[in-house]
Amino acid sequence: MSEPATEVAWDGHVANVGELSRALNELKPTGPGGDPLAVATVLNLVVAAEPERAAEAERVIEALADHQPSRAIIVARDPDGDGIDAHVEARAQLMGSTRTPSRVELVHLRLHGAAGGGAASAVRALLRSDLPVFVWWPDVPDPTDPVFVDLAQRADRLIVEAGHGDGSLGIRRLVQIISDRGPAVTDLAWAALTPWRQLLNQLTTREHLEHMREGATATIRHGAVEPTLGALLLGGWLLDSIGPATTVMFAAASRGGDPSICEIRLADPSGRVVEIDRVTGRAAAAVVTHAPDATTHDRMMPMPEPTRTQLLAGELELQRRDHPFERAVHAARRLVGA
Amino acid sequence: MTSATTVANDPQTAFDLGARLSRTPAPASIVIFGASGDLSHRKLMPALYNLALQQLLPPEMNIIGMSRSAWSDDQFRDEVRQAVATHGAHDVLDADIWDAFARRLHYLSASFDNPGAYNDLRGALAHLNRSTGGLGNRLFYLATAPEFFPVIAEQLGDAGLASEDDDTFSRIVVEKPFGENLASARTLNERVGAVFGERQTYRIDHYLGKETVQNLLVLRFGNAIFEPIWNRRYVDHVQITVAEDLGVETRGGYYDQSGALRDIVQNHIFQVLSLVAMEPPARFDSRSVHDEKVKVLRAIPEITADNIHESAVRGQYRAGFIAGQPVVGYRAEHGVAPDSNTETFVAMRLTVDNWRWAGTPFYLRTGKRMPRRATEVAIQFKPAPHLPFAHTVVESTEPNLLILRIQPDEGTSLRFSAKVPGPQVDIRNVSMDFQYGSSFLKPTAEAYERLLLDALLGDSTLFARWDEVERGWEIVDELLHLWDTTPIAASNYAAGTWGPTEADALIRRDGREWRRL
């Protein structure tokens, strides 16, 4: 007797995606004991990207482990050729703390030539119904690209990576795509700031904030020549959170080619100064607090350094609008004068 | 949930947290009494390390372990490191992170009834406050044998460590069991209460820290479809099951003094029952939720000599098989008296005599060495009043059932009737399932992490208030007395079965059956 299949796949070249739903339905992976699988009822994840980025996105999705979407649909547009190359697979996946595996699916489409214009249409036909739709656009969003516009309209949550361009371009694009009536928008560069923001939250009481509101100075050091999108978003968040009397400064620092934020210094008129210095290669930061009475405390504090896969996994846990993010984007826009 | 009981120095969130950031408590010193014990190793230390790792403990937080073991700070740190590595969620401890966490750890070797130890503790707390920039807040966690609870509280009071002022808090977390009967619980409460006010006292029941138990409130009050039918008109009865396949393991000595009624029913099951049966609170704050829970417990009639046989059954397991493996009987377990009178199984039939639930029985059962581990609440609805399927094979339908699985496979199922495909009208029950694991990607936190954080934040919603604890003891006090003074029908169920036949008789008298799990 053959072993039960925990992963099954189908490949083909099709004129439209109608055949793919049928192919998916015919794939019957089983659990380790040969039991049929219930479908994970989490979400649809749609990725639209150029072929190279799409391949990279597929690797990230495969690494999501127990954070797998119910169905991931990766769409790559290729100007050459015609028709659709499709790969579909279904497999057993342990989700969260459950002991019984669920069925998760991956659809990878390569839309050739004119078929590229129908990317959103192909995606709509393949979505699992009654599940939220997350669209991951692993690039700078282009609000004039009809595929982007179509997918954004269908999305409940839109995850972009506007930091692939320069920081100020990223801010301008984010301003363009955030809308009260559109999907909840986020950027992986913002997600990467959570450990910084949580650490600042740990170090700041409301009393401290009152002092800061009288005129704090925040200095953000980053490893790039110009401020990265992450640095600008952190500056925007501080400006929005502390208030208009805040001065936000950016400074380049050499950190072995790593462009990301490496240090924050936050000083308020009471004389309190907080310095946070990320320890390279460690999930930790050195924190030095200078109190107004001239006493100094220095400590090593946990500060996770999430990978891109972990950042995406974290974004898939959230669904609501992220108002602090939206306000940070608008405040950062003031910082870059856009 | 927010708390109405927050006091001085509880953190006022500085930044808008949004969906991503978490509240962090004000700097405090956490003192763990019984730091060398099993609970500290298995639960508390891994929970504290995880909180630190998740950036939820402020930098000025210190942890002092106290117990009789003659350890140095470094030995204590080694013990904690081993505990975190063995029982924590992370196999590999990052060296820098661990070093930073270890620097927060301190140890005092002391006898809990020695006043000098508390002077040493006061000195250590003052020193740590000065050296780390702490604010003077204190959280005392009693992870000791119960006989030390009042002793420690009183010694803390004598040492001036229980007092609060406008700028500092001092709280005490008391593990279960909170007393061994009504009288001893009242005595304990009076002695602890003479030092720590109710607002300062956090009686832990780790069931309340479980996501699925908290979800009971969201399921009931966050959905419009359940509450209209959540009453005697539509609900036939409720079954609450806490079944363990394990025996007493290494806890034979403790368990033999306790038994299933004290260990599970009076606290965990009554807490779950009160969440199932409570009225909607006006707000989700500590006081409003506790007020509604205690009303339920007050509506449960006490068990008396007159109704005891219709209300409760006890059992004790004999040798049998679990998952195909032979296991010994209770009286042969390590630490258990060979003539033990302790129950390892309890089944009860209670009513909640109020407008919502009058006439709707609540059946409770808990036991060790059951066929499988399962904790759940099953709401069984009344049958359809009329079946319009004349001239078909359908003679009856099974009742609708809403099952709230607390562990394992946390989630909710709704059982309802559906037509079997085919030309005939035939009906079979099917299930609509929600599973945490396959519907949410966010992992659930360990109960102790959540509860420790809440105690530090000053939110007592998920802790038991004294009037709830007292009422729980009142309901079962006469039963306890009777069972303590009359011999148990020893070995009346085999390990690996669902309890004694008397438990089946208890529910069958009402024309009902226990759910087969």
Write up what this structure looks like:
The complex is a heterodimer of chains A (338) and B (517). In chain A, 32% of the residues lie in helices and 29% in strands. Chain A is of the alpha/beta class and 338 residues long. Chain A has 2 domains: 7-155, no CATH class; 194-302, Glutaredoxin (3-Layer(aba) Sandwich). In chain A, helix 3 (119-126) runs parallel beside helix 4 (146-154), helix 5 packs across helix 9 and helix 5 crosses helix 11 (323-336). Chain A is elongated, with a radius of gyration of 23 Å. Helix content of chain B is 34%, strand content 19%. In chain B, the strands form 4 sheets. Chain B has an 8-stranded mixed β-sheet, sandwiched between helices. In chain B, helix 5 links the parallel strand 4 and strand 5. Residues 1-10 of chain B have low confidence and may be disordered.
Tertiary shape of chain A: elongated
Question: Largest sheet of chain B, if any?
Answer: 8 strands, mixed
Strand content of chain B: 15-25%
Second rung of CATH, namely the architecture of the largest domain in chain B: 2-Layer Sandwich
Residues in helix, % of chain A: 25-40%
Write the layout of secondary structure elements.
The complex is a heterodimer of chains A (338) and B (517).
Chain A: E1 7-14, H1 18-26, E2 38-39, E3 44-49, H2 51-62, E4 71-78, E5 83-93, E6 102-112, H3 119-126, E7 133-137, H4 146-154, E8 157-160, H5 167-177, E9 184-187, H6 188-191, H7 194-203, H8 206-213, E10 217-222, H9 229-242, E11 247-252, E12 261-267, E13 273-278, E14 284-290, E15 296-302, H10 308-316, H11 323-336
Parallel strand pairs in A: 2-6, 3-4, 3-7, 4-6, 7-8, 8-9, 10-11
Antiparallel strand pairs in A: 1-5, 5-6, 10-12, 12-13, 13-14, 14-15
Helix pairs in contact in A: 3-4, 5-9, 5-11, 9-11
Chain B: E1 29-33, H1 38-53, E2 62-67, H2 73-87, H3 95-102, E3 105-109, H4 115-132, E4 138-142, H5 149-158, E5 170-174, H6 182-193, E6 201-203, H7 211-221, E7 235-243, H8 252-258, H9 260-277, H10 286-298, H11 308-311, E8 312-315, E9 317-318, E10 320-322, E11 325-327, E12 345-351, E13 361-367, E14 374-381, E15 401-407, E16 411-419, E17 427-435, H12 436-439, H13 447-457, H14 466-485, E18 493-494, H15 501-508
Parallel strand pairs in B: 1-2, 1-4, 2-3, 4-5, 5-6, 7-13, 9-18
Antiparallel strand pairs in B: 7-14, 8-12, 10-11, 12-13, 14-15, 15-16, 16-17
